[in-house]
Amino acid sequence: MIEGVSPDLPHTDRLPAPKEWGLRLSRPLVALGLRLSWRVKVHGAHHVPRSGPVILVANHIGALDGPVLVALTRRLTFAWVKHEAFIGTVGRFLAQIGQISLNRREIDPQAVRRAIQVLRAGKVLAVFPEGVRSGGEVAWARRGAAYLAMVSGAPLVPVAILGTREPGQTKSQLPHLRSSIHLVYGEPFTLPRTPWPRRKAAVAQWTEVVRERLADHIVAAQTLTGLPLPGPPKARIRHLHPSSP
């Protein structure tokens, strides 16, 4: 996803600034809705630096992960969101709150420039390195978070999200009302800021460091909260019409 992007992304100043006003207005309302619907607990919020660029790297288990992370992080947070979500009412809402459309299937220079713009402005960017909803143990990771850290020098904060999907649910189902959701921030760490050229092998090496740090944090978060991961999402069964072959 990363290797085809231009060296140091010099054109971020030509992009319109992220729409902070929409995020500022909506975030308290989303946070209130989450807290009224589920028993939400945040741990380790002090690990998020109070100023300067930050990359939040989180596991991805359910549909609520993005709203939970963006609404409950104490600083304004912009996230990479799959471009398939930017349709209809939901898509317009995501655009109005400054979230970043990401094509996960090919190189997306615009999404990378948007992310660099957020970090250069000293703001918070959220990335789900797995790229898809999974069992949440982070058995694999894509290279975006490590690449952005190497470009910007921004610290990475591992984040464990637990409870946004229950065992036996599909990846799109929501947890039962009033069940527990935990958001657990870990200690920040940094990667060496690396000038161009950032070799594919080097990005892959540091991606594995990010993956391991996040995976270890998720294990610790389960011990802290007593809430385990839900396991792989249940496959949705497609019902065929009786006349179908």
Topology record:
Layout (H helix, E strand, L loop, with lengths): L19 H18 L1 E5 L10 E5 L6 H8 L4 E6 L5 H9 L3 E3 L6 H12 L3 E4 L16 H9 L3 E7 L17 E6 L14 H26 L20
**Proportion in helices:** 25-40%
Major sheet: 7 strands, mixed
Number of helical segments with 4 or more residues? 6
Strand content: 5-15%
Oligomeric organization of the protein chains: single chain
What pattern of helices and strands is seen along the backbone? HEEHEHEHEHEEH
Radius of gyration: 18 Å
Strand elements, count? 7
Mean pLDDT: 90
Protein structure class: alpha/beta
The strand line-up of the biggest sheet is: 1-7-6-2-5-3-4
* Form type: globular
Number of domains: 1
For the record, give the distance between the C-alpha atoms at the N and C termini, rounded to a whole number. Answer: 39 Å
Low-confidence stretches: 1-7
Can you summarize this structure?
With 245 residues, the chain is α/β, with parallel strands linked by helices. The protein has six helices and seven strands; from the N terminus they run H-E-E-H-E-H-E-H-E-H-E-E-H. The protein is globular.
Description:
With 245 residues, the protein is an alpha/beta fold. The chain has one domain (19-225). It has 6 helices and 7 strands, in the order αββαβαβαβαββα. It has helices at 20-37, 65-72, 88-96, 109-120, 144-152, 200-225, and strands at 39-43, 54-58, 77-82, 100-102, 124-127, 156-162, 180-185. The protein has a 7-stranded mixed β-sheet, sandwiched between helices. β3, α3 (88-96) and β4 (100-102) form a beta-alpha-beta unit. α1 (20-37) packs across α2 (65-72). The chain is globular, with a radius of gyration of 18 Å.
